[in-house]
Amino acid sequence: MGGLSEADIIACLSSGYPARSDVKLGVGDDGAVLTPPPGRDLVSVLDTINEGVHFPAGTPAAAIAHRALAVNLSDLAAMGAEPAWASLSLSLPAADAAWLEDFAGGFRQLADACGVALVGGDTVRGPLSVAVQLIGFVDPGRCLTRASAQAGDLVVISGTPGCAAAGLRLIDSTAAAAEPLRKAFLWPTPRLALGQALPGMASAAIDISDGLLTDLGRLLVASGVGATVDLERLPLAAAAVALLNQETALALACNGGDDYELCFTLPAAAAAELPALASRGGCQLTSIGRITAGSALDCRFKGEPAAAPESGRWSHFDGEQT
């Protein structure tokens, strides 16, 4: 693979991580030996990102690595879990040393920031694809799920959904105003601090990976409830409005995906806690609607029924966005 042996690749990917006392045996054997902390539950997540599907060809290697880990960290955040151990499977068409160094650096930088140890994985020749399994800890009975939203709860989102999808559309733009949008796509910020602040407060949660309305719909199905969303409450990125227009920015906020923000439900009695939650989570929080009885997801604009935007909606197996 480009003059590098598999041992060279593994050494590059696995070096430089701080030791964790709960990793008894890490990279270099047939498997990792890990010691779960006593009295805590394990949460396991797994995501794969592929060139041409989840990121365009030519995306910087460090950004690819960051995204591969961030999407898994976001899943753990949505469950209120603390990340610990990662395994990495990397498929490469060729082993370029400079590319590999950049990839390893991007993965390690985010892992270090979040206290994650790389404990194993695999490397193969093939189309560029990255799969990460991540395991974290949560106290018993404190894990957030999608299944406990109740009628009357507030629907709350973090950050500004739609930024990442706008950034992908503007990935080749030279406009300075597009840079924060491109950064949102290439370098997503998993909301770990917020996720770990939500157990005991939020009734249900999900991360926004395939679009706000799609992922909120999954939460509603799991909880057996409906929701009303007030479209005028959705925070829109000023740069997306300026560079793409208001209608497109709203459609991407509803359907764009790749934001890795959190959508959660909060009992109405806890509404006054939103500023404190935002402070603890280090991010903007916006209440955009309420959970309702039944099963419908209804959109409104300034109190009037409104059609949900359809453009930008993603399906993994349609092969295209609409």
Q: Beta fraction of the residues?
A: 25-35%
Query: Which stretches are low in confidence, meaning pLDDT under 50 for 5 or more residues running?
Result: none
Q: Which series of helices and strands comes N to C?
A: HEEEHEHEEEHHHEHEHHEHEEE
The CATH superfamily title of the largest domain: PurM-like C-terminal domain
Mean pLDDT: 92
And the CATH topology of the largest domain? Phosphoribosyl-aminoimidazole Synthetase, Chain A, domain 2
Helicity range of the residues? 25-40%
Largest sheet: number of strands, sense, barrel closure: 7 strands, mixed
How many structural domains are formed by the residues? 2
Please state how the strands of the largest beta sheet are arranged side by side: 8-10-7-11-9-12-13
What's the total count of β strands?
A: 13
Distance between the termini: 38 Å
**Oligomeric state of the chains present here:** single chain
Query: What's the shape?
Result: globular
What CATH first level of the largest domain would be assigned? Alpha Beta
Estimated radius of gyration: 20 Å
Determine the number of helices (DSSP H or I, runs of at least 4 residues): 10
Structural class: alpha+beta
Tell me which CATH architecture of the largest domain applies here: Alpha-Beta Complex
Textual characterization of the structure:
This protein has 2 domains: 6-138, PurM-like, N-terminal domain (60s Ribosomal Protein L30, Chain: A); 154-306, PurM-like C-terminal domain (Phosphoribosyl-aminoimidazole Synthetase, Chain A, domain 2). The protein is 32% helix and 25% strand. The protein is built from 10 helices and 13 strands. Helix 8 (238-244) crosses helix 9 (246-255). The mean pLDDT is 92.
